[in-house]
Specification:
Elements: E1 7-9, H1 14-24, E2 28-31, H2 37-42, E3 50-53, E4 65-66, E5 70-74, H3 79-84, H4 86-91, H5 93-98, H6 105-110, H7 113-119, H8 125-132, E6 136-141, E7 144-149, H9 150-153, E8 154-156, E9 159-160, E10 167-174, E11 180-187, E12 197-205, E13 211-219, E14 226-227, H10 229-235, H11 242-255, H12 267-291
Helix pairs in contact: 10-11, 11-12
Bound molecules: flavin-adenine dinucleotide.
Length: 292
């Protein structure tokens, strides 16, 4: 199938882009890497009257920058560039861990970090990572700039807090505290497929080796990346042992509630994956916290 007819605009600046978005509102769609929008257009699941191609807009893909307590990635940073960036590896090792699971390398060559976040597929890796690390998303419109916490950004299936006239320009990722380790684990039918369930785990160890704080955020179990605070709480104050990880994993499976049941997996199977993947991710995150 071919897309429905649309007008094509190729602005060169953020100002021109937000003018276009303001003028066309809901009728406009931003084109970033095109890896999700392209299929949506071809299948006529999206029928915008204007496609605003931001690939030529200056300033949206500067090299990942280390700002001291956080790193900043431009929205148009290609997923593959983020994967290979030493700034990302050092400043957000969890994102570095998750990126190789995003589709295939050829797709990551075009797909952007901002595109994945704004597309807001609940099965995607980067939205869960953004929530797990308390990322901040920078949105620009003609009215100015606003900063949205990742926890407030994802509102539902393919739905974000971004207004039609807003352009995501960057994402700020706080660096992990000392003695913190993180890990991404997922299960997908084949490498490169969207995962059935994924988990972003972080573990911060106290000086005595107990867990000072923990983060557990899941993809694939709800309409948005889902933090399971009940399972995080089980770990705090406990020694970082198999027993504590198993208890947290059981709490996570219980707290996952009623995840979706579809052709890929039943709700029961998703709960099972939550339990298995949580243990694996916590082991790896705790080992990395020890080594850091
Ligand atoms: C075969 C295949 C397998 C895939 N597997 C995975 C996977 O396993 N995990 C995964 O996470 N993803 C997967 N993807 C999706 C891929 O990661 C896409 O790159 C990503 O979802 C969208 O990024 P993009 O830059 O291509 O955005 P586009 O497709 O260009 O845009 C996606 C949406 O975001 C909006 N948008 C993009 N950038 C901005 C911006 N700066 N401001 C405002 N709105 C914006 C667009 O208007 C559009 O609605 C897969 C894709 C394919 C084709």
């Amino acid at each position: 199938m071919k897309p429905a007819a649309f007008r094509y605009a190729a602005p060169r600046t953020v100002e021109e882009t937000v003018d276009l978005l303001e003028r066309h509102g809901d009728e406009a769609k931003v084109l970033a890497g095109g890896q999700s929008l392209g299929p949506l257009l071809n299948l006529r699941l999206a029928t915008p009257s204007v496609v605003v191609d931001v690939n030529g807009v200056g300033g949206l893909a500067p090299a990942p920058a280390d700002g001291g307590g956080s790193i900043t990635l431009g929205a148009m940073t290609r997923q593959r560039d983020a994967e290979r960036s030493p700034v990302v590896a050092a400043g957000c090792p969890l994102m570095r861990d998750a990126l190789p699971f995003v589709a295939h390398r050829t797709i990551r060559n075009r797909g952007t970090v901002g595109g994945s976040l704004t597309h807001a597929d609940p099965a995607a890796e980067l939205p869960a990572v953004a929530v797990a690390v308390d990322a901040e998303l920078i949105a620009v419109s003609r009215g100015g700039t606003r900063v949205v916490a990742a926890a407030d950004f994802f509102l539902g299936y393919f739905t974000t807090a971004l207004a039609p006239e807003e352009l995501l320009t960057a994402v700020r990722l706080p660096k992990p505290a000392p003695r913190t380790g993180s890990a991404w684990q997922e299960f997908a039918p084949r490498h490169g497929d969207f995962a059935i369930v994924g988990v972003a785990a972080t573990v911060r160890l106290a000086d005595d080796g107990t867990v000072a704080s923990a983060g557990l955020v899941y993809s694939g179990i709800a309409d948005v990346p889902r933090r399971l605070a009940e399972a995080e709480a089980v770990l705090v104050g406990q020694p970082a042992t198999e027993r504590a990880f198993a208890a947290a994993a059981a709490a996570a499976a219980a707290a996952a509630g009623d995840p979706p049941s579809d052709l890929l997996a039943s709700a029961d199977y998703r709960r099972h994956l939550v339990e298995v993947l949580t243990v694996r991710a916590l082991h790896r995150a705790a080992d990395r916290a020890e080594e850091s």
